[in-house]
Design a protein that fits this description.
Blueprint lengths: L1 H24 L56 H7 L10 H14 L1 H4 L23 H5 L2 H10 L14 H17 L2
Helix pairs in contact: 2-6, 3-7, 6-7
Bound molecules: heme C.
Heme C (HEC) binds next to α4, α5 and α6.
């Protein structure tokens, strides 16, 4: 009995499937095909991960013309030259220690810096104990002597084994605010 029902069900499903398949192909020369999934399958546009035989390097994605930048992108002119950054970068919010700015900076610091450098900048963050090369304290005389531009540069480009945090702290003013926040930690440590 069960066998019979399943055979009948199978038969009905086969007929439906077959008619769908045939329906999809049998539109004739002058008619658009019936598409079951209307995903605009047949089109000229290429997916960006496809190979493009007409492109010089076979990639579908084109390399942007030389000396162009994406919209909204601000080039960082110091590259990895921390000395130039130290000289050229000037903290635009040097005097902004307002509660609002510090609160936002604290949040950024605690999430992205404190886990290594310690919530108070003592170099004793939660993951520092698991690191072979320990993150230095940020309340040290050395870090105190760094000017704002140098610290901004380290956040933006990293230093030695520390990576860049420009993708985590995207806005430049937020990075400057973190610099200011580090100054408050340094003052507190005195
Ligand atoms: C994964 C751990 C880690 C995180 C997260 C991290 N750092 Fe570092 N940081 C280091 C290490 C390790 C060094 C030493 C790198 C070197 O010189 O090779 C360092 C160096 C520095 C220095 C230079 C200190 C000195 O005495 O030379 C500054 C300033 C600094 N970090 C600031 C920050 C700030 C601000 C953040 C957050 C945006 C941050 N770091 C996030 C690990 C980290």
């Amino acid at each position: 009995m069960t066998n019979k029902i399943s055979k009948t069900t199978f038969g009905i499903l086969s007929v439906i499937a077959l008619s769908l398949v045939l329906g999809a192909c049998g539109a004739g020369k002058n008619k658009t095909n019936v598409e079951i999934f209307q995903g605009m399958f047949d089109q000229e546009a290429m997916k960006f991960q496809d190979w493009d035989p007409d492109s010089k390097d076979s990639f579908t994605m084109r390399v942007p013309p030389e000396n162009t930048v994406p919209r909204g992108f601000k080039p960082y002119k110091y590259g990895l030259d921390f000395m130039a950054a130290e000289k050229g970068l000037i903290n635009p919010i040097k005097k902004d220690f307002s509660a609002k700015t510090m609160e936002r900076a604290k949040e950024h610091y605690q999430v992205y810096c404190g886990l290594c450098h310690g919530q108070d900048g003592k170099g004793d963050g939660q993951i520092a104990q698991h690191m072979i090369l320990k993150p230095p304290a940020l309340i040290s005389d050395k870090a105190k002597a760094f000017n704002d531009g140098r610290i901004f540069h380290i956040i933006t480009k990293g230093q030695g084994i520390m990576g860049s945090y420009s993708r985590q702290i995207i806005k430049e003013t937020d990075r400057w605010a973190v610099v200011n926040y580090i100054r408050t930690l340094q003052r507190k440590a005195n």
